[in-house]
Design goal:
A hairpin with a 6-residue loop joins strand 3 and strand 4. A five-stranded antiparallel beta sheet has the order 1-3-4-5-2, with helices on one face. Helices cover 19% and strands 34% of the residues. It starts with 26 loop residues before the first strand and ends in an 8-residue tail after the last strand. It is of the alpha+beta class and 166 residues long. The protein is built from three helices and five strands; from the N terminus they run βαααββββ. It has a single domain, classed as Thiol Ester Dehydrase, Chain A (Roll), CATH 3.10.129.10. InterPro entries: HotDog_dom_sf, MC_hydratase, MCH/BMMD. GO terms for molecular function: lyase activity. This is Mesaconyl-CoA hydratase. It holds the Pfam family MC_hydratase.
Length: 166
């Protein structure tokens, strides 16, 4: 680098939160959203060996009360969890538990979904002094605001300075 060139300035994406960053009542809006495709639904359904035709047989699904194929609820759950990682568990040591998983509205191919998480509680770990336990309630929302999924998740999160740095 020549002496006349300015020193380079380096930036690194700083996704994720540490234990100290969480406060009960905070709500994280997870973006970007995701439009569900037919390929997403069929591949996920078959990959997970789910043989219910409501997810991949359009003729069968047309005769159902929904009139069309449903997106596999495990797929929507997985996408919503994935959307929440940057805000909730990017630095987590691990998930400690899932609770109160509710499927409140169907999702169809072509729906665009979003998610948000509210911090319900946090406490320091009794056995791990450099870590804490955070519980959030996450909801999946269609683009029109319809809630289709909710769950509570508890994660073990390091305190600032105690996490893995690469």
């Amino acid at each position: 680098m020549s002496e006349t060139m300015a020193k380079s300035v380096r930036f690194r994406d700083a996704a994720g939160r540490y234990f100290e960053d969480f406060e009960p009542g905070h709500i994280y809006e997870h973006r970007p959203g995701r439009t569900i495709t037919e390929t997403d639904n069929i591949w996920f359904t078959l990959l997970t060996m789910n043989t219910h035709p409501l997810h991949f047989d359009n003729a069968y699904a047309a005769k159902s009360e929904f009139g069309q194929a449903l997106v596999n609820s495990c797929l929507t759950l997985s996408i919503v969890v994935g959307m929440s990682v940057r805000d909730v568990s990017q630095h987590a040591i691990g998930n400690l538990g899932w609770d109160k998983v509710l499927l409140t509205s169907p999702v169809f191919v072509g729906d665009t979904i979003y998610a948000e998480s509210e911090v319900l509680s946090k406490r320091e770990s009794k056995s791990r002094p450099t870590q804490g336990i955070v519980t959030v309630r996450t909801v999946g929302l269609k683009a029109d605001g319809t809630e289709f999924l909710s769950f509570e998740r508890t994660v073990l999160v390091p305190k600032r300075g105690a996490g893995i740095v690469v």
